[in-house]
Design a protein that fits this description.
There is one protein chain. The protein is an all-beta fold and 126 residues long. The protein is 0% helix and 46% strand. β2 and β3 form a beta hairpin. It is globular and about 45 Å long.
């Protein structure tokens, strides 16, 4: 489960109608407007032989992550302009429910992007 707080707003540079979504395979899932009070996504993540797997899990073994994708949708086009890699922490491979909590606005006031590791994301088991 991903819990996003502190969203950056509906506009960013040349982009209007900014949304953020969990990327499942190559598609945005559960888009949330950039000016929402918070964002929440749930996805299935399995652990097989100590390795994270699932439709929203990306990356090579030992370097698995979830993507949050930022877009400015128009019709059928997501209009992706940025992504954040939420690095999965192998210390939580035995958790039945893993929760990642993060601010979706970066230090410069824009949509959080690039590789996201603690302390920018807090992982917990529940």
């Amino acid at each position: 489960m991903i819990e996003g707080q502190d969203l950056p707003g509906r506009t960013f540079g040349p982009y209007a109608d900014v949304h953020v979504a969990l990327q499942v395979r190559s598609d945005p899932a559960g888009p949330v407007p950039g000016d929402a009070a918070s964002a929440h996504w749930e996805t299935e993540v399995r652990v097989v032989d100590g390795d994270f797997r699932g439709p929203a899990v990306h990356g090579r073994r030992g370097e698995r992550f979830l993507y949050l994708t930022w877009g400015s949708p128009a019709g059928d086009d997501w209009g992706r302009f940025r992504r954040a890699k939420l690095m999965l922490d192998p210390a939580y491979a035995d958790a039945s429910v893993l929760v990642g909590t993060l601010a979706l606005t970066d230090e410069k006031g824009g949509p959080r992007c690039a590789r996201v590791v603690p302390p920018a994301i807090a992982w917990s088991a529940s």
